[in-house]
Structure formats: C-alpha cells, structure tokens
Amino acid sequence: MAATKVKAGAAKKSAGKSAKAAASRKTKAPAAKAAKKSAARSAKSATKAKATNAKTARPATKTKAAKDVPDFTDFPAGVVTRRDVTLCLACIFRLFTKQLGLAPRTAYNEIRRYAPTVEELTSRNPQRPFFKPSEEKNPHCPYCEAPRRWHARVTVHRVEGGKATDAARRALVRTLPAKDGQFQVHEEKKTARQVFFEWLERLGQELDFEDDNAWMPEAARAYLQRREPKTDWAEVFDGARAVRRSHRLEEGWEREGARLFLAPPLYNDVLLVQYLVSRSHRHGGRTFDGRLTLLDFVRRMRHGGHLEAQGITDRDQFDVLEQLVEHLAGGDESAKLHFIIDRRDLLNKVKDVYARHAT
Questions:
Q1: 298 by DSSP, 3-state: which?
Q2: What is the model's pLDDT at position 62?
Q3: Mode of pairing for the β-strands spanning 242-245 and 259-262
Q4: pLDDT at 28
Q5: What's the rounded Cα separation, in Å, for the pair 209 and 231?
Q6: Which of 328, 336, 331, 334 is nearest to 277 (CA)?
Q7: Between the CA of residue 196 and those of 118, 203, 275, what are the distances in Å?
Q8: Are 83 and 122 in contact (CB under 8 A)?
Q9: Phi/psi of residue 87, nearest 5 degrees
Q10: Cα(195)–Cα(329) distance, rounded to whole angstroms?
Q11: Are 143 and 86 spatial neighbours (Cβ–Cβ below 8 Å)?
Q12: Average pLDDT of each block of 10 consecutive residues along the chain (359 residues)?
C-alpha cells in the first residue's frame, strides 16, 4: 500500500510539472510572437528611415552636381574657350518698368525668358546692358551706376567641333540640367579661316607683349595645342627654357633637357603665328628668330625651303603671306562652333531684383 501511495504521489508531481511546463510554453509563445512582430516593425521603420534619408539626400547630390557643371576636363586643351560678360539687371528692369510700363512681375518673367545671343556675349565691346567684368572690389554699372548686387554673370563656353571634341561635347550636353533654361546650346557654321582668325584675335588679347620671354613660348604653346590637341603640352613646356628648330627631325617634336626642339615645318608655322599675333602690337613682328619685317620673314621662309615645300612660287611678299596664312588656317573648309551659355547666375540674381521691386 505504501509503495502504491508513493507511486501515486510521484505521478501527481510529474503531472504537475508537465502542466507547469505546458503553461510556461503557452505564456512564452505569445511573448515570442510579440517579440517577432516588434522586430518586424523595427525593421520596417528602419527601412522607411533609410528610404526617407535617401530621398532627402538626393536633392543635395543633384545640387552638388549642378554646381560642378559644365566640366570640360575630358576636352583637349586649346579647343574650349570661356568668356564672361556682366549683365546689369537694373538697366533692364528700368527699361521694362519705366519706359515700357510693364508690371514688375511681367518684367521678371520677360527677363527669365531672355536668351542672350552669341553675338551679344562674344562682342569685343559689349553693348548696354552688357559690360566687361570688372576687377574692382565694388564695381558699378558703367551705364546707370548700379552696384554689384544688380550685376549678373553670363558665361559662354566656345567649343570647336571636330573628332577630338564631338563625343565629349555630346556627353557633356546630356549632363546639363534642363530646368528653366539654365543652359542654352547654340551651333554656328563657319569656315576654317574664320575660326582661325577668331582664335588669333583672342590670343592677341590674352598675351602680354611687354615680356618677350613670356608671351613667345605661350603663343607657341597655344598654337601647338590647337594643332595637336591630344598632346599634354602643359607637361611638354614645363621647365622648357628654349624652343629651337631641329635639323634632325623631319616632323614632330622632341624634348631634350630644358630645350624643346621642333621639326622645321612645325617651327616655321610657330614663327608665322608669332609674326601675325605680334605685328599689330610691335613694330614689325616679334618671333623666336627676332624682330622681322614682312620682307625678312618671307626671305627666311624661302631660303629655308618652307615655301617650296608648300608649293608657293609667288614673288610678291603679300601674296606669299596670304598663301602661308591660308595653308595654316585651313581655307574654306567647313567648321562648326558650339556655344554653351550658362544662365544660372542670371536666373538667381533676377529673383532678388524682383523681390526688391515687389517690396
């Protein structure tokens, strides 16, 4: 009987433990489910937070990209030129609001739609309301004396068409923001001769003819960049103290120590560029071979065999010069110029100007 009671007690204890374990499992199961749901909600909220952060971060990335364009680092040196011109918004607003009687809002909309022409932006002597940028700390409009806060900068980038630039230009244009016409792209067809003389005129404006040791190598480098745009001429000229004619080379160039040697045809072309760009600034023409009159220059070209190599047989010095330039410029060959006009500063400044008028 005692053994039977002991067995019954052990069975009761075992049943009690099983019941407690079952109850414990029942209570733990909802807790586990709740924990899983909580973890899922946390994961979802984290995902939403990441998505929100990504959305808020995108505009900043776009803003940064907009500040970095246009980027011409992939273009060969010498084929892209930049020109900045200042636009006086005070002059334009006075014209629209006082002379034409337009409301400030209408004037604001008209200015936002205003697309400056390439001729207006590239003119050697800009006309009102445009004027050349000033290096003064607090510049004023030369027409109406408006202070700096009324001035907007418009930049035009000029890209010469060709195999060396076409692919890079198309890729660049695709990256430009199209909103509000921040950038405008124009194309002009000209002859190679016209393009060359425009380049020559700009080169003459950029050089300082007071120091022969400075402008002569710079003029040579500018021409070589134009002739062979894929070569890194900045590196070639780095540390070069002299540019000489080489009697060993039939074509091309070579660097030896601090001296740069050019083949005779290439050297003679450099002399021609120096002569053309300097003759209107100095008496005669200054070149690596010294100051030369036209007669001296033609005589050197003839005695060096340069005229014969190009098939020039004329005796008149002016006819010889014309044919030399024609050969160098490319004559009537078709050429394209691409202009990228940056209006971002104009659009930003005109908002401030309208705000002043509105108040």
A1: helix
A2: 42
A3: parallel
A4: 45
A5: 26
A6: 328
A7: 18, 10, 15
A8: yes
A9: -110, 130
A10: 8
A11: no
A12: 43 48 47 51 51 45 49 80 90 85 84 86 88 88 90 91 84 86 90 89 86 90 89 90 91 92 94 89 79 90 89 90 90 88 90 71
Q: How confident is the model at residue 226, as a pLDDT?
A: 87
What sign for the dihedral angle of Cα 348, 351, 357, 359?
A: negative
The interaxial angle of helices 104-113 and 344-358, nearest 10 deg, is 180
Q: Give the C-alpha separation, 182 to 260, whole Å.
A: 44
Quote the pLDDT of residue 298.
92
Structure tokens at 15: 């049943």
Task: Determine the Cα–Cα distance for residues 288 and 215; give it in Å rounded to an integer.
Answer: 11
Query: In this structure, which amino acid lies at residue 284?
Result: G
Asked if 333 and 63 count as a contact pair (C-beta separation under 8 A), the reply is no
Give the N- to C-terminal CA distance of the chain in Å, as an integer.
109
What pTM does this model have?
Answer: 0.67
Tokens read off for 330? 């490319």
Residue 151: the pLDDT is 93
Q: DSSP assignment, residue 74?
A: T
Per-residue confidence (pLDDT) for residue 279, from 0 to 100 = 83
HSE-CB for 50 with a 13 A CA cutoff: 5
- Is 340 strand, coil or helix? strand
Residue 357: the pLDDT is 63
Q: What is the pLDDT of residue 285?
A: 83
**Partners of 242 in beta bridges:** 259
Q: Which of these, 152, 209, 162, lies nearest to 349 by C-alpha position?
A: 152
What are the angstrom distances between the C-alpha of 116 and each of 141, 294, 313?
18, 41, 47
Q: Are 338 and 159 in contact (CB under 8 A)?
A: yes
CB–CB of 270/262 below 8 Å? Answer: yes
Domain locations along the chain: 80-182+343-358, 197-334
